[in-house]
Amino acid sequence: MNLRRALDGLVRMAQDARPQYRADGLAVTRRNLGFLRDPRFDEAWRKAAAGAAAAFPNGDVPDVRWRAHVACWAAQHAMRHDGDFVECGVFVGLLSLTVCHFLDFAKLDRSFFLFDTFAGIPDRGLSEAERRSAAWLNRELYFDCYDVTKRNFAPFPNAHLVKGILPESLGEVAPRMPRIAYLSMDLNATKAEHDVIVALWDRLVPGAVVLIDDYGFAGHDSQQAMWNAFASDRLLAIATLPTGQGLLIKPAGPGPS
Q1: Dihedral angle, C-alpha 153, 21, 72, 207, nearest 10 °
Q2: Which of 63, 127, 182, 209 has its CA 20 to 30 A from that of 77?
Q3: What pairs with residue 247 in β-bridges?
Q4: Residues near 170 by Cβ (< 8 Å), separated by ≥ 6?
Q5: What is the predicted pLDDT for the residue at 182?
Q6: How many other β-carbons are positioned within 10 Å of the β-carbon of residue 57?
Q7: d(Cα 17, Cα 51) in Å, to the nearest integer?
Q8: Are the C-beta atoms of residues 216 and 190 closer than 8 Å to each other?
Q9: Helix %, strand %, coil % for the chain, to 5?
């Protein structure tokens, strides 16, 4: 009898160890994944994925729901603070579109500034490794997606697409975003991300959140090193998330600028 109970226990343990979520480079076991079934989040994700489907072969949108959940959490955090939303590196807007649907952004008295070339990663200021990665992404994934992205954000008149190369394209709208509460970074380019965060840091309000999409992914070591140095210079640290994202909160009060 004791042996039978022991065997049953081993079976249950093995079942518990089976991945509950296997996607986006994650295989997660024995976790509460209730956020994936949250009706508000699920509806936002489904609407965003439907809009993004045109950008992927056979409409096969990658399952990045955990990253999208983190973005929605960060956006909710930002709602506690005065300031607009900014995303640098948009493509067709899968994550930012989830945020917009999740927050019902059209009803908010805020703007969401969406910066991208909408035609791939510029071959400028890239390291050799970044240049090889960009060449592959530009060939296999990115295309002239401006019309698709514009259509996706049409329900949100306070979401503004800004087409151009960063950081120069910041200058076109800088007077319209003096305070930023949410900043999402996904440029796949170390120098560009550095130049953008240096340009925008003083516009981030105390408590603002910076979500760094590539921070913890293999092959993005130079980006991580740059962000770590930037944070360290300001006596801050970046949280490494299992999704591969990095999370940085601008503190309140005086400190190194």
Answers
A1: -140
A2: 63
A3: 211, 239
A4: 115, 196, 199, 200
A5: 98
A6: 7
A7: 34
A8: no
A9: 45, 15, 35
β-pair type (159-163, 112-116) = parallel
Domain boundaries, the chain: 1-31, 34-249
H-assigned helices in the chain: 2-16, 34-37, 39-52, 65-78, 94-103, 128-140, 146-152, 170-173, 190-200, 221-233
- Reported as a single tens digit per residue, the pLDDT across 11-55 is 454 555 565 889 999 998 888 899 999 999 999 999 999 999 999
Selected from 2.30.30.140, 3.30.70.100, 3.40.50.150, 3.40.50.300, the CATH number assigned to the domain covering 34-249 reads: 3.40.50.150
- The token pair at 246 is 């990095």
Provide the residue count of the chain: 257
For 201-216, the pLDDT digits (tens) are 999 999 999 999 999 9
Task: Report d(CA 149, CA 143) in Å as an integer.
Answer: 11
* Contacts within 8 Å (CB) and 24+ apart, 160-165: 160/111, 160/112, 160/113, 160/114, 161/90, 161/114, 161/116, 161/118, 162/113, 162/114, 162/115, 162/116, 163/116, 163/117, 163/118, 164/115, 164/117, 165/117, 165/122, 165/124
Question: What integer is the mean pLDDT of 101-108?
Answer: 98
Torsion of CA 197, 101, 74, 122, to 10 degrees: -30
Identify the residue whose tokens are 């698709």: 148
